[in-house]
Amino acid sequence: NGRWCHVAAALRGRLYLCAGWVMQGALGIGTVECFDPGTISWTLMPSMPPLPVKPGSRRGHLSASALSGKLIVVSQDEGSGTAVADSFDPDTAATGAWMQQQLPPCSTTSPILLHAAAWQQRLFFLT
Q: What does the pLDDT average to over 16-40?
């Protein structure tokens, strides 16, 4: 669908493609798609919740990881620097239950490359 600046993570034998921007108008999106290699098909999953800053805020500096059976997407608002971690449990996909937690403030005076990596049942945030 012309998406760019998105992230992907493998979880339970499937690939999840999350967020990013659409090519026309560089609009930020929170859609999530799941690729199942067993059926060679894509499924639209519940969208990520909006950023807590303001409606239509663009997610930037995205990072995705799988941790404890959940998909974790860390992102930062392009304008304010507000960073959030969104988590999704595929077992609750029918309810669309994403959980969002705001992270400590990041500096907005210079670009922050915010990444997250799962290692030994812990999530590490790297800037």
A: 83
- For the chain, report the end-to-end CA distance as a whole number of angstroms: 30
- Which positions ≥6 away from 55 have C-beta within 8 Å? none
What predicted TM-score, i.e. pTM, was given to this entire model? 0.79
Q: What are phi and psi of 93, to 5 degrees?
A: -55, -35
Phi, psi of 106 (to 5 degrees): -110, 155
Over range 5-33, report the average pLDDT: 82
Give the 3-state DSSP-derived string for 87-122, with helices as H, strands as E and coil as C.
Answer: EECHHHHHHCCEEEEECCCCCCCCCCCCEEEEECCE
Q: Please say whether the beta carbons of 20 and 50 come within 8 A.
A: no
